Amino acid sequence: MRWWLYNVLFAVAYAVMLPQFLLRMKRRGGYRSRMGDRFGRYPSDVLARLRQMQGAVWIHAVSVGEVYVAGQMMRAMRAREPGLRFVFSTTSSTGWREAEKQVGPADVLVYNPLDFPLCVRRALDAIRPRALILTESEIWPTLIRACHRRGVPLFLVNARVSDRSAPGYRRLRFWFGPVLRMFSSILAQSETDKRRLVDAGADPERIDVTGSFKFDVAVRNPVKEQEVAAFLAHMDCGPARTVLLGGSTWPGEDAALLRIYRRLRPRYPDLRLVLVPRHFEKADAVQAEIERAGFACVRKSKEMPRDPTGGDSRPMGMHHSLLERDPSAPPVILADTTGELMGFYGNAQIVFVGKSLCEHGAQNMIEPCLCGAATVVGPYTENFRPVMSDLLEAGALVQVPNEMALASEIERLAGDAEVRNMLGARGTASVLRRKGVVDRSAVALLNAMPHHA
Fold first, then answer.
1. Are 314 and 368 in contact (CB under 8 A)?
2. Residue 248 in contact with residue 278, Cβ under 8 Å?
């Protein structure tokens, strides 16, 4: 009765969301050509490759962060079992594009089947996995039940239960408990996550607290750092300046940083502001915000390539008068390109991590800490609870409750190079000490899987 009810409710929910789902598919162009994957029907060439695979591990991830986690896990497992092959599934076109960078030539990338019994059965018949690995909070009951019935080992890695989800899991323990107890092993991010999973009905004997995979996912990019350093030096934001960076900012946070910058600039003439919005398609709105605050704006996307002959290499759209203006009013840099955030983190002295002041959840604060920047976050960091606990305990970053406190902290760091350098050094050391979770987890998973000849 319980499973019949779930299938009915899932079908109703899917029907309600289908128009929005189709509209998004049309807008993004995403997985329209692979819609059959959702029903367990794969293109003939994909099906042929799946049939040739023996003992492949099925790994599933959705968000970009989860895809990075899955990619790290794949590489760590393959380092210990070189012939290991993976079937990587995701649910969105964004996840697909990122997953394409993570899979190897011997792996197969598919869209996850809808969580209906027939779709799941077709997918399992085609993939015949040695094991199924789900990431973070990806709980698909029908898929989990079908794997369990077939004797396919189930693993949940980097498992977490958010503050928002925990009460619901606990109330629906009668439903989640039997599902969670089907996992062979759960690798949780923190003791809090373990307690919440147990409250939801999971077997405590099958849960190990490993720490967060996110510490391993963060990797510096020296090539990108050098490219960004050249750009910043050209914009008078080189090593002699103090770069304040807003990383992955959300609406409202750019305006807050601009207000703080406008107030501090007269007292700290070497301070420079760089904004890296979370969604680069909103760059026009951020530029308008910059100009309303009274600053000129330089957009990274309009940078002209340097002329190797020594000719004019001004950014597009900028006049000589802007570059030659009084340095007391330097432009604000708007980094509206993709894939360069780590390069900017490696060249910043002070970083504010977005989605933590005006939105809830926070972006990744591990990355600027790794790069040695003095890192500041707002009060809303729910998505990184175990990470924040570790970093705060180590004095690796500073958390502030509101914009006024953020302004005071930025001023403190802008005025004392020794303090910000020490904070940055603690951040780097703290992240490096916590690396290795992925390797240890890879060993644990391989030991728990059936041997494949």
1. no
2. yes
**What's the rounded Cα separation, in Å, for the pair 393 and 61?**
30
Q: pLDDT digits over 412-434, tens only?
A: 999 999 999 999 999 999 999 99
Q: Which helix (H) or strand (E) holds 60?
A: strand 57-60
CB 448 within 8 A of CB 153: yes
Compute CA distances 226 → 186, 334, 345, whole Å.
40, 18, 11
Residues of the chain with CATH 3.40.50.11720: 26-211+436-448
Q: In what order do the strands lie in the sheet with 332-334?
A: 297-299, 332-334, 271-277, 242-249, 350-353, 374-377, 398-399
pLDDT band at 177 (very low <50, low <70, confident <90, very high): very high
Looking at the DSSP bridge assignments, the partners of residue 132 are 58, 154
Query: 26-211+436-448 adopts what CATH topology?
Result: Rossmann fold (3.40.50)
- CATH 3.40.50.2000 in the chain is located at 222-302+322-433
Q: Put residue 361 in one of left, alpha, beta given phi > 0 → left and psi -120 to 50 → alpha.
A: left
Question: Across-strand partners of 274?
Answer: 245, 333
Q: What's the residue count for the chain?
A: 453
Contact residues for 368 (Cβ-Cβ < 8 A; gap 6+):
245, 247, 345, 348, 351, 353, 375, 427
φ, ψ at 31 (rounded to 5°): -100, 30
| pTM recorded for the entire structure | 0.77
Instruction: Give the residue from 447, 453, 451 showing the smallest Cα distance to 184.
Output: 447
Say yes or no: domain 222-302+322-433 is CATH 3.40.50.2000.
yes
For residue range 110-136, list pLDDT tens digits in order: 999 999 999 999 999 999 999 999 999
